[in-house]
């Protein structure tokens, strides 16, 4: 039964990469437009595609600016500084970009898929096999996320060091110290969730979030661990090196920080990795704190509303609804992150470190201690 | 003065309120009658602790943040509420067909409220018969600091009053500095600048040349300097002989 498994896995990988790339491309536009609208501007709206042999110009609210930018970056001169470590300089963008995509592998984006039910002619081919909608259903989910997301900093520091430029070096150093400070906070916030759910498997966590607390609140992680949710989002934005934590690339201080010496599509990869990481952060937050692909009162068969009312849905519709819910939650969180990015000013370097070590870390530890005591008093959940 | 010379004396100087208080470090100059300056090592030991130097700097602006403001989160949420409110206000405007921004879509739209002193476009005034008042004397082109005015002179022997007239009068707006010296130099009040912007945006730089046809389109309802607009029919009788008034006065 290798062939059906392989088919489905390749399908999932293609879908994941497609969704991430789509988000990366779309978020460039969303960021521009959202920033424009919230600051009383209009935003980029001039790029158009002209339909050949007609005079019709498609503008579509400036959606094609992303394409124009991509084309520009691909066609630009690839400037190379006279650095002594050409290898590190060249691979740095890829070292940043690849782990960002890998993190998504363990994130479940839907429930159990039964391809035989969705496409009846292929029922014989799949022979009733079901697949969890996830690229890699590993039971070490969170650990893998931290392992891979920790790798991106390697690329950042490589870029900063190998560019042979003081601004880049300072950016790389700042990125390193920022990473160490905030990775700690991020890990400790998730610890509380691990205590409550008793697992590091992301699919297990999402399944445990499908119920309701007392019939009113969805049993999402954010209601169990509200403080941890805020801290996680803060630390994740800091990990992503976006305003207000964009010190490694602070353009008013360091030109462009660690990618000052990069041009063309190499610079584009850094930017694109940042935008995809917005989506990744949103996906992780959704999975850990917002119930993943779950809607309130929804299960794999349909809705079971309070009062014993059941709404049965076909399998295909449930799968669509779950994936749609997941994407909608991700999009809402991306928009929230962009809103934060355009609302807050940048921290000073010492403020950023003070914030991590003197405020976030003690609060995280206190939160963890309280969680431990409550879990212990309840005798495990 | 004692023999052990303090190398530096630090005095916190409080200036008038509203100004930064400065700690002024002034080296005391030993008078020539004093003992020779102490060895460098001794100097170092004396520098190590100086109580006066550890007086804390006083700032004129006190840290005025309250505890609530220093808690980060409430103020961040307040800021987010402001920006999100503006976002949704503009989005509702935009969805209901209004513009969510004050921006003018420039080439398609022109703003109606140019500043009263805006002089953004050249025009050529006309004689009553509609011909340009310009006598192609080239004074504007001579005085122009950016050298953007090009005039091609035509000659008409049948019009002894003004035999010279421009055949081609063009201004290169890609180089014009809008200094207005051409207006100052013109002896005939033939060129003026008005409250407008020329239609410049183009993907071809040669479209930034303002031609004579475009400059002759100026047709105001009234003009303080002369009977304007030039009405059709009989031209105003003018004598350009000696002691005559010019057309503008």
What keyword list fits this structure?
heterodimer; A: about 375 residues; mainly alpha; 3-stranded antiparallel β-sheet; two-stranded antiparallel sheet; 15 helices; B: about 250 residues; alpha+beta; 6 helices; 7 strands; elongated; disordered C terminus
Record the SSE blueprint:
The complex is a heterodimer of chains A (381) and B (249).
Chain A: H1 2-38, E1 49-50, E2 57-58, H2 65-75, H3 86-103, E3 112-113, H4 115-118, H5 123-126, E4 131-132, H6 141-149, H7 152-162, H8 166-197, H9 202-208, E5 212-213, E6 217-218, H10 221-224, H11 226-239, H12 251-254, H13 264-289, E7 298-299, E8 302-305, E9 309-312, H14 315-343, H15 349-378
Antiparallel strand pairs in A: 1-2, 3-4, 5-6, 7-8, 8-9
Helix pairs in contact in A: 1-13, 1-14, 2-13, 3-6, 3-7, 3-13, 7-8, 8-11, 8-15, 11-13, 11-15, 13-14
Chain B: E1 8-13, E2 22-27, H1 40-48, H2 67-70, H3 73-95, E3 121-124, H4 139-143, E4 149-155, E5 164-172, H5 181-185, E6 191-194, E7 209-210, H6 212-215
Q: Summary?
A:
The complex is a heterodimer of chains A (381) and B (249). Chain A has 381 residues and is mainly α.
What does this structure look like?
The complex is a heterodimer of chains A (381) and B (249). Chain A has helices at 2-38, 65-75, 86-103, 115-118, 123-126, 141-149, 152-162, 166-197, 202-208, 221-224, 226-239, 251-254, 264-289, 315-343, 349-378; strands spanning 49-50, 57-58, 112-113, 131-132, 212-213, 217-218, 298-299, 302-305, 309-312. The radius of gyration of chain A is 22 Å and the shape is globular. By secondary structure, chain A is mostly helical. With 249 residues, chain B is α+β, with helices and mostly antiparallel strands. Chain B contains six helices and seven strands; from the N terminus they run ββαααβαββαββα. In chain B, a hairpin with an 8-residue loop joins strand 4 (149-155) and strand 5 (164-172). Chain B is elongated and about 95 Å long. The N and C termini of chain B lie far apart (86 Å). The A-B interface holds A 34, 36-42, 230, 339-340, 342-344, 355, 359 and B 72-73, 76, 79-80, 82-84, 86-87, 90-91, 94, 99-103, 105.
């Amino acid at each position: 039964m290798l062939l059906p498994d392989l088919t489905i896995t390749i399908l999932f990988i293609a879908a994941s990469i497609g969704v991430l790339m789509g988000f990366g491309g779309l978020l460039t536009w969303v960021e521009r437009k959202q920033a424009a609208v919230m600051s009383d501007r209009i935003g980029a709206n001039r790029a158009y595609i002209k339909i050949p042999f007609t005079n019709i110009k498609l503008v579509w609210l400036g959606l094609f600016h992303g394409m124009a930018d991509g084309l520009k970056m691909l066609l630009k001169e690839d400037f190379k500084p006279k650095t002594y470590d050409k290898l590190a300089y060249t691979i740095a963008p890829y070292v940043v970009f690849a782990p960002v995509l890998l993190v998504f592998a363990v994130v479940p984006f839907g429930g159990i898929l039964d391809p035989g039910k969705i496409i009846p002619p292929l029922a014989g081919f799949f022979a009733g096999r079901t697949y969890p909608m996830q690229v890699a259903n590993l039971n070490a989910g969170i650990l893998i996320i931290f392992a891979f997301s920790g790798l991106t900093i390697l690329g950042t520091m490589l870029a900063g060091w190998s560019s042979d430029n003081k601004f880049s070096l300072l950016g790389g150093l700042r990125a390193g110290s920022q990473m160490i400070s905030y990775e700690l906070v991020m890990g400790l916030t998730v610890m509380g969730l691990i205590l409550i759910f008793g697992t590091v498997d992301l699919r297990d966590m999402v399944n445990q979030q499908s119920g309701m607390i007392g019939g009113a609140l969805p049993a999402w992680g954010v209601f169990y661990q509200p403080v941890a949710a805020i801290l996680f989002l803060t630390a994740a934005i800091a990990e992503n090196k976006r305003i207000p934590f964009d010190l490694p690339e602070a353009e008013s201080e360091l030109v462009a920080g660690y990618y000052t010496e990069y041009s063309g599509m190499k610079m584009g990869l850094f930017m694109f990795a940042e935008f995809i990481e917005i989506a990744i952060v949103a996906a992780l937050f959704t999975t850990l704190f917002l119930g993943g692909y779950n809607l309130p009162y929804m299960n794999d068969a349909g809705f079971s509303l309070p009062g014993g009312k059941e709404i049965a849905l076909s399998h295909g519709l449930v799968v669509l609804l779950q994936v749609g819910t997941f994407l909608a939650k991700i999009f809402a969180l991306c928009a929230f992150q962009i809103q934060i990015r355009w609302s807050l000013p940048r921290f000073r370097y010492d403020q950023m470190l003070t914030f991590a070590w003197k405020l976030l870390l003690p609060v995280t530890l206190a939160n963890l201690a309280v969680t431990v005591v409550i879990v212990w008093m309840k005798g495990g959940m | 003065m004692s023999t052990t010379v303090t190398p530096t004396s630090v005095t916190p100087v409080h200036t008038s309120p509203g100004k930064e208080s400065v700690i002024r470090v002034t080296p005391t100059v030993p008078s020539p009658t004093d003992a020779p300056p102490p060895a460098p090592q001794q100097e170092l030991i004396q520098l190590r602790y100086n109580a006066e130097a550890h007086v804390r700097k006083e700032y004129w602006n006190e840290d005025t943040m309250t505890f609530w403001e220093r808690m980060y989160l409430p103020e961040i949420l307040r800021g987010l509420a402001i920006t999100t409110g503006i976002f949704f206000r503009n989005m509702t405007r935009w969805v209901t067909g209004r513009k969510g921004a004050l921006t003018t879509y420039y080439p398609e739209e022109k703003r109606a409220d140019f500043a009263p002193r805006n002089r953004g476009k050249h025009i050529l005034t006309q004689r009553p018969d509609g011909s340009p008042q310009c006598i192609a004397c080239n004074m504007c082109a001579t005085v122009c600091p950016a050298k953007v005015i090009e005039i091609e002179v035509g000659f008409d022997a049948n019009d002894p009053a003004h035999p010279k007239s421009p055949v081609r009068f063009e201004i290169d707006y890609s180089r014009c500095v809008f200094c207005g010296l051409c207006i100052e130099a013109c002896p005939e009040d033939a060129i003026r600048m008005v409250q407008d912007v020329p239609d410049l945006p183009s993907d071809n730089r040669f479209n930034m040349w303002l031609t004579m046809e475009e400059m002759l389109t100026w047709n105001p309802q009234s003009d303080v300097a002369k009977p304007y607009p030039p009405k059709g029919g009989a031209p105003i009788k003018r004598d350009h002989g000696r002691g005559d008034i010019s057309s503008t006065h």
